[in-house]
Each structure stands twice: as structure tokens, then as C-alpha cells.
Design brief:
With 616 residues, the chain is an alpha+beta fold. It contains 22 helices and 21 strands. A hairpin with a 5-residue loop joins β8 and β9. α13 packs across α15 and α14 packs parallel to α20. The chain starts with a helix and ends in a 16-residue tail after the last helix.
């Protein structure tokens, strides 16, 4: 028994000895070997300065700078270190009142008395220099270098987007960010945020009692280097973008231009536009409020988010659907006696010679031809009944990228509207609606809602003879070409390639002897289609789609000008001027009068500009 008791004492003593040795070794490591604990012990004389990376630049397809950075400074404060400063001198430098000073200090204390937080954002280099001269008098304050975006072209605001400070929800959702960080809010700034933002760094510096930086802690052993964001090369042509925005000045609407051969977006305009420089710097909050409550809604991206009736430009789709379904051929002729009627419904048409086939129907924009084509489609016995025929027609339309998202590489894209048969069942009752109830769809009216982006993409499909590439705006990221599989894969519509020739012929005839002959450009073989979209809320919209040259097309354009009347009046001249500018890099003398008329035209009242430019 004694032997067992002695063994137990020995074991217990051994365990205690081992535990004591572990503590001794650990204390030695903490106090002698591991310097990181020295940093914690001396936290009151160390400052942890975030090194913010430069955000990536944005260039156009030719290398022209569209977005770059300008350095500014955030003034940081650690409340417990603020003692007996000259508030009058301090406020004079920052150009704030003493009430502002008290309010900002209270906010900083509420955040933390011991941790640094932002006291004043985005000080200019001049203000920062004045502060640095007297920083020894302002214990508890220091500055961190940041950068803000600058836009030398002052164009493409909706496409480029803007950045803003993260809120608590974003910090919670994305652990990378912390309070005070900036993030892309819209445009490519949002969709390519991860590539543009770079990676934060950290610098630990020693500070004396007079708030003077004495150097890096432990020779920078605990520092990390910020990694700059990657540059983006866009498919956008900055010169064409600027020209299109000038043509759309004092007008409402949207323009999208696409290269049909690869889906690259050359231009995207939403009018009215705004100078993107208004949403940077310390004046951003004021200017955002001005733009937000502007009755013309300049922040609204009409090119991707506005639903418009396509008007007669949609006749191209209905012709292709009819040809592919076999309800008409390229030689089918329908008469027109000033319109088309069925029951109590009558669709008027403007005077023209008849009867007409597809090519002439496109050129003269005959309503009667397309009403009869649509009637033949919905009445096709092969589909069984009107509802089944309508569903098949709708599938044709969806295959053109209408009524669904195209998945462009920009945020906030909307899908447009192609009503379902269920919608008409609810409106008229199941099996109680027929062609006469949906006749307006035959000429691009009724419940149809299409964005300018979708109009341009549809035009690219026709230019290509049945396929398209998903539209996109980024061509390269950093030094590597950015071509993910989804942007290099052909997307096909349901219409067979052989049916496009007659429609293409009709579009060429439109420019040479049809409704858009006044907008033709000598030496350029264009294919186009005018549209006058009826607007229940006011004057009709002017719509036009076109591409050029006919052989090996390089550009497809869709233009919609709100409340501007017939497609030939404004949309067509604007579109053809853009094509001339893009293909020849100039405007010929014969087009100068047309150009002046478009540049000088005012379709909306001039609004008073009360926004403020960025501070120096």
C-alpha cells in the first residue's frame, strides 16, 4: 500500500512539474522571443495605418483613359488621445464650424474611444499639406492616403458607374471590407469590383507624444504591401461615346451600339446623362441628392432598364417568325387599303403602293402586311389553337433575347416584357382571346416592352443572319484578354439562316428608297428600319435600328428618342451619323446640316444645373 501511495505522489509531482515548466517556457517565449507582444504592450505608441491600394484604371478600346485616380486624404482620430488642441485653428484648416467639430468627435467616441475612425473624408492635397504643418498641435489626429476616381472624358456615367462607402450590411455580407472602405455601387465599378479594388496593405509606425511619426515598427516586420487593382480595357469607343452623348443632349432616350462580329458594346448612352465627376469627392452626397430628385431622372439607365414599345422595328422579328414557321414566303404578297381590320378592330397604315411582299413591306413599313402575317401565324392549324400558336410565337421572340436577360457584364439589366398566354388568360379568360385581342403585337405595340440594349442585340442577330454573342463591355483585364466562354459562344435564335436574306434586303431598301432614305450616307451600304412607338403617356417615340456595312457588318445600332415623333425624324439621323463617325472617323460635308440639326435639337426642357464640381 505504501508503495502505491508513493507512486501516486511521484506521478502528481511530475505532472505539476511539467505544467510549471510549460508556463515558464511560454512566458520566456512571450517576453523574450515573440516581438508581436511587444507591439501589443506598446499599443499606445504604435499606429496601424491602412495602406489603400490604387484602384485599377479604365481605358477604352483604343487605350484612351476613361477613369483614373486622384489622391485624397482621410483624417483619422483616436478620441482618447485628443487633448487640449486649438479647435479654432483646426476648424479653420478644415473649413468646418465648432459645432461640426463637436458632432464629429461625439460620433467618433460612440464608435470607440480607443480605436481610430474617420473624422473627415477625402481632404484635398492642399488641405492635407496645411494639416501636416501643424499636426504636432493636434494630438490624436493623423491622415491616411486614399484615392478618388476622376473621369477625363466626363462621359459614359451609367456604364462606368461610381463607388461609395460600404455600409454595415455590406461589411457583414463581405468580410473583406471594413468600415470606411469603398466599393463599386453601379456600372463596371460594381460588376468588376474584385479586379479593380486591389488588396489592402498595413503599415505599423511608431509615434511620439507629440503625434510625430518616428518610423516603422521593427523595421517594417509587420507591414504588408498594398497591391494595386488591375486595369480594365473596355470595348467602348470613347470618341463614339462622346459623340453619341452630344447628339442626345437635351433629349431623353437610349442608344446602344454593338459589334455584331463579337458582341462587344461600342457605345451605351442613357439620356439625359450626367458628368460622372459629380459623384466623387466631398461634394458627392450633395450632387447625388440633386441628381436623384431631378425630374428628368439622369441616374436612371434607360439603355438597360427602360421598357419601350419597339414599334415598327419589331416588324423585322414578326417577318422572320412568319418565314421560319412557313406561314409566308419571301414572295407572299398582301394587299393594303390604308390599313387592316378585323371585327371592330382596325389598324391604320400610311399610303403606299400595294400589294407588298416582305422586302417592300420592310422598306415602306406596311402595317397591313404584318397584321396579316401575324394572323396567319396564330391561325396556323399545325399549332392546334391560338394559345399554342401564341406560345410558339413567344418562344421565337424569346430566342432573339427579348423578354429575358441577355446577361451582359453590367449590373441592373432588366429583361423587358413579352406577355405570356397566362397574362391574356387572366385578362380575357381561358380560351376567350384570339388574334384580334393581340393584334397590336404584330406591329410592335401593346404589352411589348424592349430595352435599347435588346433592340441593338436583335439588330446584331439580323446582321449575322441568325446568331449573336452575349453583349459585353470589358475586353481585357490587366495584361490578359478577357474572353470567358459565355462571351465567345454563339447564341442562335430559332429562325433558320436562309430566312434572313429577304429581311436584310428590305432593310437595305429602307435606306435606299424607303422610310429612312433621308438618313442614308453616301458610300456606306446600310440596312435599317424605322419605328414610331406609340406612347400612351405623351408624344410618340422615335425609334431606329440599323447596321453597316451590309457585308461583314462592323456596327449595329439602336436609337430611341422619347417623344420625338417618327423614327425618320430623329432616331434615324442620329444612328446614321454614329455609323458614319465610327466607320470613317469623320462626318462628310453632305451630313453636316443633318448633324447640326441633331446637335441643336431640344426635345426636353433645359433643367437648371445645381450640382457642384469636385473640390480642388
Amino acid at each position: 500500500m505504501r508503495s502505491d501511495s508513493g507512486n501516486q505522489r511521484t506521478v502528481i509531482l511530475g505532472i505539476f512539474t511539467i505544467v510549471i515548466l510549460i508556463y515558464i517556457v511560454r512566458l520566456f517565449y512571450i517576453q523574450v522571443i515573440d516581438n508581436s507582444y511587444v507591439a501589443s504592450a506598446n499599443n499606445n505608441v504604435l499606429r496601424y495605418v491602412t495602406q489603400y491600394p490604387a484602384r485599377g484604371f479604365v481605358l477604352d478600346r483604343k487605350g484612351k483613359m476613361m477613369v483614373f485616380n486622384q489622391q485624397v486624404y482621410d483624417l483619422m482620430v483616436t478620441p482618447r488621445m485628443v487633448k487640449s488642441i486649438d479647435t479654432t485653428d483646426f476648424c479653420n484648416i478644415l473649413q468646418i464650424s465648432k459645432d461640426d467639430f463637436i458632432r464629429k468627435m461625439n460620433k467618433a467616441r460612440q464608435y470607440s474611444r480607443y480605436k481610430a475612425s474617420i473624422f473627415e473624408k477625402q481632404l484635398s492635397a492642399v488641405t492635407n499639406a496645411m494639416l501636416q504643418e501643424k499636426m504636432y498641435k493636434f494630438n490624436g489626429f493623423y491622415t491616411e492616403a486614399r484615392s478618388i476616381r476622376m473621369y477625363p472624358q466626363a462621359t459614359a456615367a451609367h456604364l462606368l458607374g461610381y463607388i461609395g462607402e460600404v455600409d454595415d450590411k455590406l461589411v457583414e455580407k463581405y468580410p473583406y471590407y471594413k468600415s470606411g472602405d469603398y466599393i463599386g455601387i453601379s456600372g463596371i465599378e460594381q460588376s468588376y469590383e474584385e479586379a479593380l479594388r486591389g488588396k489592402r496593405g498595413l503599415k505599423v509606425v511608431m509615434v511620439d507624444v507629440h503625434n510625430n511619426v518616428k518610423g516603422s515598427f521593427q523595421n517594417g516586420q509587420y507591414d504588408s504591401t498594398a497591391i494595386a487593382g488591375e486595369n480594365l480595357v473596355l470595348s467602348i469607343d470613347a470618341d463614339l461615346q462622346a459623340y453619341a452623348e452630344k447628339l442626345m443632349a437635351h433629349k431623353r432616350g437610349g442608344i446602344v451600339a454593338i459589334d455584331p462580329s463579337n458582341g462587344e458594346i461600342l457605345t451605351m448612352v442613357s439620356a439625359p446623362a450626367y458628368d460622372p465627376n459629380l459623384l466623387v469627392g466631398r461634394v458627392r452626397a450633395h450632387n447625388y441628392g440633386v441628381l436623384l430628385f431631378d425630374k428628368e431622372k439622369p441616374l436612371f439607365n434607360r439603355a438597360m432598364m427602360a421598357y419601350y414599345p419597339p414599334g415598327s422595328t419589331f416588324k423585322l422579328i414578326n417577318a422572320l417568325c412568319g418565314l421560319d414557321a412557313g406561314v409566308i414566303t419571301s414572295e407572299t404578297r398582301f394587299g393594303c387599303r390604308g390599313g387592316f381590320g378585323i371585327g371592330s378592330v382596325y389598324v391604320h397604315c400610311h399610303p403606299h403602293a400595294g400589294p407588298v411582299e416582305v422586302r417592300t413591306a420592310v422598306a415602306v413599313s406596311c402595317n397591313s402586311f404584318y397584321c396579316q402575317t401575324y394572323q396567319a401565324f396564330l391561325g396556323n392549324a399545325n399549332y392546334g389553337n391560338t394559345e399554342k400558336a401564341y406560345n410558339e410565337w413567344r418562344n421565337y421572340v424569346l430566342s432573339f433575347g427579348i423578354g429575358r436577360k441577355l446577361h451582359v457584364d453590367l449590373p441592373h439589366e432588366l429583361k423587358g416584357n413579352v406577355p405570356t398566354s397566362a397574362y391574356f388568360d387572366k385578362l380575357y379568360g381561358r380560351n376567350h382571346w384570339k388574334f384580334s385581342n393581340v393584334i397590336s403585337l404584330s406591329i410592335g405595340q401593346g404589352e411589348l416592352g424592349i430595352t435599347p440594349l435588346q433592340m441593338a442585340n436583335t439588330t446584331a442577330i439580323i446582321a449575322n443572319g441568325g446568331y449573336y454573342y452575349i453583349p459585353h463591355v470589358v475586353h481585357a483585364i490587366g495584361n490578359r484578354k478577357y474572353l470567358p466562354k459565355e462571351f465567345t459562344t454563339r447564341q442562335y435564335c430559332k429562325v433558320a439562316p436562309e430566312h434572313f436574306f429577304a429581311v436584310q434586303d428590305g432593310m437595305q431598301k429602307t435606306m435606299e428608297a424607303g422610310t429612312a432614305r433621308g438618313s442614308a450616307v453616301k458610300g456606306i451600304v446600310m440596312c435599317g428600319k424605322t419605328g414610331t412607338a406609340q406612347n400612351p403617356h405623351g408624344k410618340n417615340h422615335s425609334v431606329f435600328v440599323c447596321y453597316a456595312p451590309r457585308d461583314k457588318p462592323k456596327i449595329a445600332v439602336a436609337v430611341l428618342v422619347e417623344n420625338a415623333g417618327q423614327g425618320a425624324w430623329f432616331a434615324a439621323p442620329i444612328a446614321t451619323l454614329m455609323i458614319e463617325k465610327y466607320l470613317t472617323d469623320s462626318i462628310c460635308q453632305a451630313s453636316k446640316a443633318k448633324e447640326k440639326k441633331m446637335l441643336d435639337a431640344i426635345i426636353v426642357p433645359l433643367a437648371k444645373d445645381t450640382a457642384t464640381n469636385i473640390d480642388d
